[in-house]
Amino acid sequence: MINEVETFAELISTNAASGIVFNDNVTEEQNLQALSAAAFINNVHIYKLNPANELEFFASYNKTGQAPVRAMFGQTEKLATPTFGADALEYMMPVTLEGDRVGYTYIRASIDALNKLTLNTILITCSVLLLALMLSFLLTLRLQRSVTHPIEELVYLVQQISHQKEYSSRAKASSLKELDILGSAFNDMLATIQQHIERQELAEEEYRRLNLSLEEKVGQRTTALKEANKELIQTLEKLHQFQRQIVQNEKMASLGDMVAGVAHEVNTPIGLGVTASTMMLDRLTQLQKDFENKNLKASALAKFLKEGEENLNIIYRNLNRAAELISSFKQVAVDQTSENARAFAFKQLMDEILLSMRPKLKKLPHDIQLHCDPNLTIESKAGPINQIMINLIMNSVIHGFEFMEKGQIDIWVEMQGNNKLSIRYVDNGKGIPEHLCKRIFDPFVTTKRGQGGSGLGMHLVYNLVTQALNGSITVTSEEGHGVEFQILFPVRMLEHSDIAKSS
């Protein structure tokens, strides 16, 4: 639009130059009537310079139905460039003849067409945006369906299996990697359950078959048993003499093996469970062979029952320990815990924590000093405190005291007022680099990446302090000068009278 206005102004100025020189304004106004073909031009003024170098009105053009506008004598500099107003575009161009300025041309053009173009552009843009939003909504629904449909199928399969006990069903493969992994694990679990049920059915069938033939076998063995009765009585008399000693030795040996195994294989409890279950299968196979070969003795059956009980206890403890380790490793939100508060002496709790860590710390020359009033008794959640202190101590041992011959840990515990407990944990290790100190409580921050470090220990400590205990924790450290943790959380301090009432 600016280009068109400038072009018309130049044409009008060129035509008006001769009219101004010859002072023929009549002819010039007749020429200006040709502008009626340009619908967007509302008003045109031609001014001439008099001998006093002042502007005078020379000729004008007003579009039909358009009101005249006032003279623009003082706007030559302001309108030297096309200027948009509220409803029009105004422009003044000098009229020159052979290099001399003889006057000015003023054009006022309507911007209605421009406004309509702008409105159409806005409407088109809004329409395209609305269409894009509708397409995005439809695509979102389609994507949501592609994600939720496999989940709905898996949920339906789980419900069907839980009601009908049909363990031969299998989950279908999914295009989503995570759901496909979940489906594969679910299918493996179903296969394991189905195999277990089949083995159980076979065992029950074998048991029924043995019961049917038991009377016949008893009759066949009655004579042999009578002949061996005297020998068995003598053997049993000897066995009774050593029975207590043997049972006690087996208990002590089993307890020793279990303690040594847990201390040595604390990171691989599932392996112990597998070993114990394999041993049970071997003993069961041997027992079945002895039973089929008619060599089964009461002492062997008693020994099997005893060993079976011990091995099942080992399997349970190790699988439970494995579940706890996995839960501790994955636990990044402490609100999953539901431990209730209880009353305890803090120094006694710390002694129990250090005693439980003795297998890990006894081979290390590090010194741990607890500065705490032995009579300090509080009511709080002992479980989170236990896990916090274990994580802090192991963090110092693994990271802070690395390549150190002997490390020192000091733990100061005291009450602040009557309802807050302060724990100040200080070690003299190698400290934390500044770039890690700012992110020490973030998940997966570790200096042992690829060496067994998960980076969840301090994040778990932070969650336990802030969420389980409703407290706060801060860290201060310089590389090479150890680390200090300040923990503050609300507790209820108990007097001896309160402890007696609660007990």
TrEMBL record:
It is an enzyme of class 2 (transferase). The keyword Cell membrane does not apply. Residues 145-198 form the HAMP domain. The keyword Transferase applies. GO terms for molecular function: phosphorelay sensor kinase activity. It is found in: Membrane. Residues 261-493 form the Histidine kinase domain. Keywords: Coiled coil, Kinase, Membrane, Phosphoprotein, Transferase, Transmembrane, Transmembrane helix. The chain crosses the membrane at residues 117-139. It catalyses: ATP + protein L-histidine = ADP + protein N-phospho-L-histidine. Residues 193-245 form a coiled coil. Its EC number is 2.7.13.3. GO terms for cellular component: membrane. Its main location: membrane. Pfam families: CHASE8, HAMP, HATPase_c. InterPro entries: CHASE8, HAMP_dom, HATPase_C_sf, HATPase_dom, His_kinase_dom, HisK_dim/P_dom, HisK_dim/P_sf, Sig_transdc_His_kin-like_C. CDD domains: HATPase (cd00075), HisKA (cd00082). PANTHER family: PTHR43065:SF47, SENSOR HISTIDINE KINASE (PTHR43065). This is histidine kinase.
